[in-house]
Amino acid sequence: MPAAIFDMDGVLTDSEPLIRAAATAMFAEMGVKVQAEDFRPFIGAGENRYIGGVAERYGVSLDLPRAKARTYQLYLDMVPGRLQPFPGARELVQQCRAAGWRTAVASGADRIKVVANLKQIGLAVEEWDALVCGEDVENNKPAPDIFLAAAGRLAMPPAQCVVIEDAVNGVNAARAAGMGCLAVAHTFTSEKLAAAHRVLPDLAGTGMDDLQDVLAMVQT
Description:
By secondary structure, the protein is an alpha/beta fold. The chain has 8 helices and 6 strands; from the N terminus they run βααααβαβαβαββα. It has 2 domains: 3-14 and 84-219, HAD superfamily/HAD-like (Rossmann fold), CATH 3.40.50.1000; 16-78. A 6-stranded parallel β-sheet has the order 3-2-1-4-5-6. β4, α7 (168-176) and β5 form a beta-alpha-beta unit.
């Protein structure tokens, strides 16, 4: 059977506003005032680029491990009670499993964030067939490494995998991996996500027929 590989931030849960708020607060502690739009080019590329890219924009010299640790500390304080799954996210995962598809999470974020998010939204790590995080690969999105690693752990050929993404970096990574890509316009406009095989406005109402359609596009 095929496999569905889910990005996490912006697909399963709307965590980007919280990590942005945490990173903004971290920069503020350093005396640097950053803007929400500063983070946008780095969405989906993992926290190294998400934080490091903004630091470069402002000419800030960072101790990146320390900056990430502080950002995660602030973020994890925000998660309880505020982080929710996107409508339709849990239902689509459940449909995949009921249909016999293998399921994986492939997130450019660090494991501490991935584990906390999945637990909070009721899709805990142990329920997935595979989990790949930013620390597990040398090159994060838009490189294909993270999706290829997920396919390897699932023992699935790339052409049998459909990636569900929300970010331009993630769509480009999925296409570079030779996988089908279903994009949801949670974070970027449909026009920005046009490189995906199919773009839907959200996951509400998305079902196995949508994933099967994308899979057929890859295999023809």
